[in-house]
Design goal:
The complex is a heterodimer of chains A (230) and B (679). Chain A is built from eight helices and two strands. With 230 residues, chain A is mainly alpha-helical. Chain A has two domains: 30 residues, no CATH class; 196 residues, Up-down Bundle (Four Helix Bundle (Hemerythrin (Met), subunit A)). In chain A, 38% of the residues are buried. By secondary structure, chain B is an all-alpha fold. Chain B has a three-stranded antiparallel sheet with strand order 3-4-5, with no helix packed on it. Chain B has a two-stranded antiparallel ribbon with strand order 1-2. The longest helix of chain B has 36 residues. Chain B starts with 34 loop residues before the first helix and ends with a strand. Classes of the chains: A mainly alpha (230), B mainly alpha (679).
């Protein structure tokens, strides 16, 4: 496909084909797929905004609930998983860049890295949730603090539903990227580097967004609890 | 002066083509001769729009019948025509049906049909996503109304569908929580599985609305014909854009609120469980953060339609086009800042109440600007009182009536008296029927000749308009007085000593007159499609691009790409200088048409299965959890296959041309040459 064709080949669902020149350029020059992803992310902001507000409102209404966040939150663990998620965004950027250059091998390596890091993040979250539900025991098996579930006050409800929704977003992203990884072996990506790069870039936008949301959650839900206002 | 000719080429010129294979190796359902395959797999925005419209009119009638039963119950004091429980179910289903299954999809029908035509596009940006939105809407609509089916089966003691086999005592199978579903009344303690039907169907409808809106924003921003600058777009397209933004930003709030309620009901969380510290006021905030933008979602498309009809029949450009658009955007923006005026009596505090009161009054400013601009459009115009024009004029007057009582509500102390009374019922029916519905019916009168290619017979339209406007005023005007006399909303019945009987009887009579008007309207549609004369391309001497092409439009919309030189481009083309002619650019490669697909329909079926399995699982019917998981699997599998099959497409080479340049197509010239392309 020629460069000119690649440039004008932006009429997404109307397809981009083998050697076929799609003449319909978009009015703004922004590809449709990219624009719809940005709009979806705007919508997704409102989803997370609602969940985060719910959590913060109940934290303000019940500052001394059944759960003391400064005791149960495992900041070293969460910092580690936050760092991993941040680094996955770095690999995602590399994967997008590789696909733009048509370097499929580099794309595959980087995408596998993102998937790997995403799974580490999810594992940390599963570990964290398990600890939260069963509570913490010291070496002698004595209970240090009691666990909490979805049904523990409002804190359990808002915390698990918010972080669970975020975890679901990460899991969907991981599955999406695994899909793209296997798709890269079908031989269809080479035929349409520009279109494939757009597909990867859209997945990347989603991944970065989920990452940024986590930064907000880590700050507003975890770290803020440790500020001593008195 | 309609110079373009109706051409005589067959509507589906590509019969006899062999459908290509998709990337999955499956045959795409293109060029199917089967009616069902063609419509079920269609990605044509016009067919999707027609299906939205047909479904919306159907549910409009369903919601109307529910309203008539409500009015029959209230006609006389101490009536026991229906039980209080059924009454609750009826007003819940009436509100939910009218908002989500009638007015919103009817607006969506106009979005789908008109927006690509008005901006000179071949289709929406994502044709298969559009098809998915339609079928997901249908799934949500069926799930909500499936509750009636299960309730009737229960009542008849059916063995196969008797939900009593479960562990839960079933009270309300049909939702009875009100369209607002206030917690904690919508918690499992106080409402039966109807609450689950209500939650899951609204979630599914939300998916459909958000997907469609994302699609329309991209279409309007990105798919405009050359020269169709933003400030040359028809006002209807502009209002579609504003509405779509409202939908993608407002629906998440209710989606999360519904998810929280669903978790409370099914998974033991405490979001709204008072005994565990949950605060029901949170539900009100989340609901109205969605709910207030929602009322602008219902009215802005109607304002767009009226802004198209008034200039056409005044033969003047819309007065103050930029300020009308700006006002629409301001209404949309302020719509997010006034939700607490639904909650003045909840004790928000003086500062919050005053702020929301002021912001609510501020909304009257852009609305008033629009009304004055419409009047300015009429001023000095050569007014033709056609059927669409009568409805548009009715809209301006009736909507203003609703607007006046709206301003009364914006004053918090006054609202404290009117809250939850029939005064409020009167107010929002004036803006919804007198506003949205009148404009939408006017829109049908305006555009059906384009959609169907036939002109109205003219025998009934004045009767339709007269009966509807008279009926609506007889029904809802006395409700102002009833409300001020203290009659509460959602009351199953009332005592004779209250002396509300006479006015309620008037309201009920009015409701049946209104229903007569709707019936006459449906008969008029029937007369139009059976007895109407061919409409021609431009029966109203229209102003916008959709009137430049044949009626009904070809499935590829435009034979050549229009180059737009001006606002109101078709009017400028007809009457303007040589510089203002629309330039038609033929494409060398032919017209690229998107391929049809089964997968959006398949994925939406997953929503249907999930939506029905989920509530009856809560009733304790065995294996329903697995059925819900199966539904989810079908949804995910459908989306994966959809993305793997590739968009596909084929090329058409139509021989006829659009607009004034068109020559009568030679009969029997056969189908346009068509070729298959790629994948």
């Amino acid at each position: 496909m020629s460069d000119a064709a690649a440039l004008s080949n932006s009429h997404d669902d109307h397809g981009h084909g083998h050697g076929h020149i799609d003449h319909t350029a978009t009015s703004t020059g922004i590809e449709n797929k990219k624009l719809i992803m940005w709009l979806f992310l705007a919508s997704d902001c409102m989803f997370f905004g609602t969940l985060i507000s719910t959590h913060l409102i109940y934290r303000k209404v019940y500052p001394d609930g059944p759960v003391d966040p400064t005791v149960v939150f495992n900041i070293p663990l969460t910092s580690f998983s936050t760092f991993i998620l941040l680094m996955s965004s770095f690999l995602m950027a590399l994967a997008v860049s590789a696909m733009h250059k048509g370097e499929l091998k580099s794309f595959r390596n980087n995408v596998l890295g993102v998937v790997f890091f995403g799974i580490i993040f999810l594992t940390c979250q599963v570990f964290e949730f398990t600890e939260f539900v069963y509570g913490k025991h010291d070496a002698d098996g004595n209970l240090v603090w009691e666990g909490f579930t979805l049904s523990t006050g409002t804190f359990g409800s808002t915390f698990f539903v918010l972080t669970g929704t975020h975890g679901t977003h990460v899991a969907i992203g991981v599955l999406w990227l695994i899909g793209l990884y296997f798709y890269s072996f079908t031989g269809r990506m080479e035929h349409d580097i520009h279109g494939s790069a757009m597909d990867v870039e859209v997945a990347g936008l989603y991944w970065h967004f989920v990452d940024i949301v986590w930064i907000v959650i880590f700050t507003a839900i975890y770290l803020v609890e440790f500020i001593n206002f008195t | 002066m309609s110079t373009a000719t109706t051409d005589t080429l067959p509507h589906s010129p590509d019969h006899g083509l062999v459908a290509e294979k998709s990337a999955l190796g499956l045959t795409r359902p293109d060029h199917s001769k089967s009616f069902w395959v063609d419509w079920l797999t269609t990605v044509d925005h016009k067919k999707i729009g027609i299906m939205y419209g047909a479904a919306a009119l159907f549910f409009f009638v369903v919601g109307g019948i529910e309203a008539l039963i409500i009015r029959a119950q209230l006609a006389v004091p101490e009536n026991d025509l229906i039980s209080a429980q059924l009454y609750n179910q009826l007003f819940t289903m009436h509100g939910t049906t009218m908002i989500f299954l009638a007015v919103m999809p009817l607006s969506a029908a106009f979005f789908n049909y008109l927006v690509p035509l008005q901006i000179g596009a071949r289709d929406v940006a994502f044709p298969r996503l559009n098809s998915f939105s339609l079928w997901t809407f249908m799934a949500g609509a069926i799930v909500l109304n499936a509750s009636w089916f299960f309730q009737v089966m229960q009542y008849m003691g059916s063995e196969a569908f008797n939900l009593k086999s479960g562990t839960v005592t079933l009270t309300d199978i049909v939702p009875a929580v009100g369209w607002f579903g206030y917690a904690p009344l919508s918690s499992e303690l106080y409402s039966g599985i109807g609450g689950d039907f209500w939650i899951i169907s609204l979630q599914i409808l939300g998916v459909a609305s958000i997907a469609a809106s994302l699609n329309f924003i991209v279409t309007i921003i990105n798919m405009r014909a050359p020269g169709m600058k933003m400030m040359r777009m028809p006002v209807f397209t502009w209002m579609t854009l504003v509405t779509a933004f409202l939908i993608i930003l407002a629906f998440p709030a209710i989606t999360i609120a519904l998810a929280e309620l669903m978790f409370d009901r099914n998974f033991g969380t405490n979001f709204f469980r008072v005994s565990q510290g949950g605060q029901p006021i949170l539900w009100q905030h989340l609901f109205w953060v969605f709910g207030h933008p929602e009322v602008y979602i219902l009215i802005l498309p109607a304002m767009g339609i009226v802004s198209e009809i008034l200039p056409t029949f005044s033969r003047k450009p819309l007065f103050g086009y930029p300020i009308v658009i700006f006002s629409g955007a301001v209404i949309g923006f302020l719509g997010f800042a006034v939700w607490s005026h639904h909650m003045f009596t909840t004790g928000l505090g003086k500062i919050a109440t005053a702020a929301f009161s002021l912001l609510t009054m501020a909304i009257a400013v852009p609305t008033g600007v629009k009304i004055f601009n419409w009047i300015g459009t009429l001023w000095g115009g050569r007014i033709k009182l056609t059927a669409p024009m009568i409805f548009a004029l009715g809209f301006v007057w009736m909507f203003m009536m609703g607007g006046f009582s709206g301003i009364m509500h914006s004053s918090a102390p006054a609202d404290a008296q009117q809250q939850d009374s029939y005064f409020v019922v009167a107010h929002f029916h004036y803006v919804l029927i007198g506003g949205s519905v009148l404009a939408l019916i006017g829109g049908i009168y305006f555009w059906l000749p384009k959609v169907y290619g036939k002109m109205w017979t003219g025998a009934l339209s004045n009767w339709v308009a007269g009966t509807i406007v008279v009926g609506l005023n007889i029904t809802f005007f006395p409700m102002h007085f009833l409300g001020l006399l203290g009659m509460p909303r959602r009351t199953h019945t009332y005592l004779a000593v209250n002396e509300w009987g006479a006015m309620n009887m008037v309201c009920t009579i009015g409701a049946f007159i209104l229903a007569m008007g709707i019936l006459l309207f449906l008969i008029d549609i029937y007369l139009c499609v059976t007895k109407g004369k061919p409409a021609g391309n431009d029966p109203w001497d229209g102003r916008t691009l959709e009137w430049a092409i044949s009626s009904p439009p070809k499935h590829y919309n435009f034979a050549a790409v229009p180059k737009i030189p001006a606002r109101d481009c078709w009017f400028a083309h007809k009457y303007g200088s040589a510089k203002q002619k629309i330039g038609w650019q033929k494409e060398d490669h032919g017209i690229h048409m998107p391929s049809q697909s089964w997968w959006p329909l398949f994925a939406s079926c997953g929503f249907l299965i999930l939506g029905i399995a989920f509530p009856i699982k809560h009733a304790g019917v065995p294996y329903m959890g697995w059925l819900a998981i199966l539904g989810l699997t079908i949804l995910v599998f459908g989306i994966i296959m959809w993305s793997l099959e590739g968009p596909g497409g084929y090329h058409l080479h139509p021989e006829e041309e659009d607009g004034e340049d068109s020559k009568p197509a030679p009969t029997g010239s056969g189908a346009p040459v068509s070729e298959e392309v790629h994948r």
